[in-house]
Amino acid sequence: MAGMKQAGLAQQANISASYLNLIEHNRRRIGGKLLLDIAAALDVEPSLLTEGAEAALIAQLRESASIHPKVSAELSRTDEFAGRFPGWAQLLAETHRRVTALERTVVELTDRLTHDPHLADSMHDMLTTVTAIHSTASILAESDDLEPEWRDRFSRNVHEDSARLAEVSQSLVQYLDNSSDANTDLQSPQEEMDAVFKAVGPRFSELEDGTQDPLSLTEYLAADISVAAKELMSWALQSYALDVAKLHEKQLASVISELGPDPFKISATLGCSPDLVMRRLAALATNFGLPEVAFAVCDGAGVLIHRQSSARFALPRFGGGCAQLPLYRALTQPYSAQTAWVEPLSNESAPLRAFAYAAPLGPVFPSQPPIYRAYMLVVDPGQDRGSEFDLITQVGVACRICPRKPCNMRQEPSILSSGL
Q1: Are residues 14 and 122 part of one domain?
Q2: For residues 109 and 9, which has the higher predicted lDDT (pLDDT)?
Q3: In the predicted model, what is the mean pLDDT of residues 345-370?
Q4: Are residues 294 and 414 in the same domain?
């Protein structure tokens, strides 16, 4: 339908035509970055390649209906509606996707306005410059007896401050306009590293198959980022390589089909630590044909030091996460397996399964307190979620943009009086 040949598509996806042929005949699995590359080359949603157009459309219609529980949509006739009125069904699905994307943009922008230190510094610089221009302009306007030398000096100050104000304003506009793009000029080292990881995917095939070492891979990926971000990336990739050595992809694949993405069951079966299994699942889930997962790590102070959001579960770009997350419950109960059903306060409100576990970082020495880290994996149970749940915990991204009422863990009022 796109008028592309197999060789052309394979070239755009950076794979061989023979490998693409195996994928088309269902003889090779597809997932992760490769799925996204092929979908981008064909200009379609990835779900169309994995589920089929009609199945994806029906799922989107059901999802759109589920966000309005007060409207009694005839869910049992969704298939009939999509079949009889495919154009209207597609329009409704596209509208739902656009509304969801706009809501995410609002969340990201509000999160930046609330917590971003770079934005706060820029705003302070802008206000300081505006005040200086106003003061200088007042002197020029109200003083008729200024000597020419001082008048020229004040005029020069206004010119220089105006140029600086224009530069700061331009960078702010660029920053806010690119809210959905991680590659902005105003970034912390953590954001720079996260942007690279998001671009290349959570799985690093070079480390999985041993064709590159962490240091050389860092040099290859970190060509355009700061020195501090490069150092963070080096640490992250070295940890990734150690995880590969402890738990290879093939070992994990051998139990996934039977046990599913439950890190505690996998840990007990393979005899390895739950936090190791969580990190490996975060990197390899889509490669195993599982739904996209979210993954977070926090230190002993509760600060998020690693964020891997998913389409269903968002994590804040700055500051800590929702205090209701089992991630923080695990931090207070090390070595205890924590599981919970969590429901994001967004339009896609179907419950997700969260697993959390806390353990010391590195060896524990006598007379020295252990340094703890907590890990949380959030998965979509899909067809296994059933019709009934245990206690469901509603969680938000951050207090300022969370409409949940009441909440005994709220730290500040929400700007959303009636939800999104």
Answers
A1: no
A2: 9
A3: 82
A4: yes
Mean pLDDT, rounded, for 160-170: 84
| Confidence grade of residue 184 (pLDDT, cut at 50, 70, 90) | very low
Comparing 137 with 403, which gets the higher pLDDT? Answer: 137
Per-residue pLDDT at 388: 52
pLDDT band at residue 291 using 50, 70 and 90 as cut-offs: confident
Mean pLDDT (whole number) for 201-211: 88
- 156 CB burial (10 A radius; 0-12, 13-18, 19+): exposed
In a domain, 266, yes or no: no
pTM of the model: 0.58
Range of the domain at 143: 117-177
Domain boundary among 177, 198, 218: 177
Strands in 304-308's sheet, in edge-to-edge order, are 304-308, 294-299, 372-379, 352-360, 338-344, 392-395
Q: Is 346 a domain residue?
A: yes
d(CA 193, CA 236): 9
Are 127 and 150 members of one domain? yes
Report, as an integer, the average pLDDT of 271-278.
94
Domain C-terminal end among 160, 177, 194:
177
Least confident of 20-24, 203-207, 260-264: 20-24
